[in-house]
From TrEMBL:
<dbReference type="Pfam" id="PF26146">
    <property type="entry name" value="PI-PLC_X"/>
</dbReference>
<dbReference type="InterPro" id="IPR051057">
    <property type="entry name" value="PI-PLC_domain"/>
</dbReference>
<feature type="signal peptide">
    <location>
        <begin position="1"/>
        <end position="18"/>
    </location>
</feature>
<dbReference type="GO" id="GO:0008081">
    <property type="term" value="F:phosphoric diester hydrolase activity"/>
</dbReference>
<protein>
    <submittedName>
        <fullName>PLC-like phosphodiesterase</fullName>
    </submittedName>
</protein>
<dbReference type="GO" id="GO:0006629">
    <property type="term" value="P:lipid metabolic process"/>
</dbReference>
<keyword id="KW-0732">Signal</keyword>
<dbReference type="InterPro" id="IPR017946">
    <property type="entry name" value="PLC-like_Pdiesterase_TIM-brl"/>
</dbReference>
């Protein structure tokens, strides 16, 4: 009942917002006029892996970022990835578990995202969350999206699953006030009651393998699911390099980040994957230490804005 009410409030807000924004259609989308007319499915976005796992303490082993999500967004990150865990009955973002690294509640995280979106009205953002404990989408996730206000900005596809070529342009997403696209790796296939804006990731996005210790980033289609062909999916490359430390524990390597996040390394990885995507560049490039290196330059090249 509470969920139904929450969703209908969200729909009403979405309509109101669409009405307001439609009167001043965006002429710059995600910082570029050219992107307004380009399909969401045909753009390369930079993503922050474990976006909440931020610490300047070099001894915090489970950290993957050294700037907070607001700084990541200000710098140009347009996909935020995060791993959830229940902690004393409340949904948190934690890395591996909440003792190792507790990034706070999902609700607080989403409120921070909402504030940033409010301050940046011509930006389209993707959220990619993982749900390793199979926490209820309608019971726990949806209320956090509703309470934070992010649900009212979330895109609901007209049909499912959406092919890569089906996605609206950034201008259309902005014009409709539906400029947040939300994917979940598990539990969003409708099995436990569907929430229409929380989309099943692997039906529409495939991923390369993760947990690499090989600096050449050989490409393969690792996680995906039907019914669409692989080439009809968008795709994400996990471009982060782990190092083996003692007891075969692998951790993200901050020292190598300037090499890993260089234009050369990112482009080599991207071009190694185009064979699986009818020659298309990756839609999402997921990075650790996203403030280090030349990620945005690499994305500009893949988007055709510089050579
Ligand atoms: C937008 O794209 C369509 C088809 O790709 C094209 O026909 C149209 O001229 C473009 N509009 C602008 C304003 O660039
Ligand atoms: C977008 O389309 C162009 C032209 O087909 C292609 O070169 C580019 O790789 C595509 N990018 C993505 C992310 O699909
Ligand atoms: C925008 O909203 C209108 C009215 O609800 C709808 O018909 C249209 O399909 C929406 N466009 C996109 C790209 O979501
Ligand atoms: C790769 O991305 C997936 C999905 O978001 C995530 O679960 C995984 O931890 C990532 N791994 C690395 C090393 O980037
Ligand atoms: C995906 O990658 C993991 C290692 O990261 C590997 O164990 C697994 O077999 C791969 N699965 C597929 C379908 O390639």
């Amino acid at each position: 009942m509470r969920v139904l009410l929450g969703l209908s409030v969200a729909s009403a807000l979405r309509l109101a917002l669409a009405f307001v924004i439609d009167t001043k259609r965006a002429t710059v989308c995600n910082g570029r006029a050219e992107l307004c007319n380009r399909s969401y499915g045909n753009i390369t976005f930079i993503g922050a892996h474990d976006s909440f796992a931020e610490s300047e303490d070099p001894f915090a082993l489970a950290r993957d970022q050294d700037v907070d999500i607001t700084t990541q967004l200000n710098d140009g990150v347009r996909l935020l990835q995060a791993q959830s865990h229940m902690n004393n009955g409340v949904l948190h973002f934690c890395h591996t578990n909440c003792i190792l690294f507790d990034g706070g509640t999902v609700l607080d995280y989403l409120k921070t995202v909402k504030s940033w979106l409010d301050a940046h009205p011509t930006e389209v953002l993707t959220l990619l969350f993982t749900n390793p404990e199979g926490v209820s989408i309608p019971g726990v996730w949806a209320p956090a999206f509703d309470l934070s206000g992010v649900a009212a900005m979330a895109y609901i596809p007209p049909n499912m699953p959406m092919k890569q070529s089906d996605w609206p342009t950034l201008g259309e997403l902005l014009g409709n006030g539906t400029r947040v696209v939300v994917f979940m790796d598990a539990g969003a296939d409708g099995a436990d009651g569907s929430v229409p804006f929380i989309l099943p990731e692997f039906q529409m996005i495939w991923e390369t393998p993760y947990g690499f210790t090989d600096a050449t980033f050989p490409c393969s289609v690792n996680r995906t699911s039907g019914p669409l062909d692989t080439t009809d999916h968008m795709y994400m490359i996990n471009h982060s390099l782990n190092v083996d430390i003692i007891f075969s524990l692998t951790v993200s390597d901050p020292i190598e980040a300037s090499v890993t996040n260089s234009v050369d390394s990112i482009l080599a990885n991207a071009y190694g994957c185009t064979q699986f995507a009818n020659g298309r560049a990756p839609n999402f490039i997921l990075l650790d230490w996203v403030d280090v290196g030349q990620a945005y330059q690499a994305a500009d090249i893949l988007n055709g804005f510089r050579t």
